[in-house]
Amino acid sequence: MTEFVYSLTFDDYLGFEKFKLKRNKTSFFSYIMCLFFIAMGVYDAVIYKNIYLVFIAGIMVLFGVATSFYSLKIAPKKRVKNLLSLDSTYLCQNRAVIDEKAIEISNIPKENQAGIVAVYPYSVMSVIYETADCYYFFIATEVKILPKRVIPPEFSDYVKKIISKNKNYLFIK
């Protein structure tokens, strides 16, 4: 069993938002479809020598680039800012206890805050993702984020061994 105290940062939540985008196959398919239709418009413009179709295809390309930039760069930051503005406890200190059967996460409340202790057995987690920087524990409709940088170096191998032996564990590059 290992126990340590940690705090999440804005960048941890932003990393999770980017992780969700990377795992979202629907948006990738939508971009591919948009590129296909733009290519068809350019092809028709060249074949029929219609300058208006070239202009429309150019506008579609600009719109696709702007939409991609917004959804990949601006929207995740906006979502994290909105999330953190709703509840200040997202950035408070937490205590994690990791053992063979479960992970226990409890906040360390400040004055006039409620203390919350939650024990999550690995069997109730739908999936545990490990990335280069974090562990993400998906539990029903919530996600617990555990950055690797907060795990004390003397416990990091133990934590990796405990977490990676679960059947719902996945490593994502």
Summarize the topology.
Blueprint: E1 2-7, H1 10-23, H2 25-48, H3 51-86, E2 93-98, E3 102-107, E4 117-121, E5 127-130, E6 134-139, E7 142-147, H4 153-164, E8 169-171
Parallel strand pairs: 5-8
Antiparallel strand pairs: 1-2, 2-3, 3-4, 5-6, 6-7
Helix pairs in contact: 1-3, 2-3
Output mean pLDDT.
88
Structural class: alpha+beta
Strand tally, please? 8
Helix content: 40-55%
Total count of helical runs of at least 4 residues: 4
**Uncertain regions: pLDDT < 50 for 5+ in a row?**
none
> Alpha-carbon distance between the termini?
27 Å
Helix and strand sequence? EHHHEEEEEEHE
The Cα radius of gyration reads 22 Å
Shape: elongated
Describe the sheet with the most strands: 4 strands, antiparallel
Strand order in the largest sheet: 1-2-3-4
**Estimated share of beta-strand residues:** 15-25%
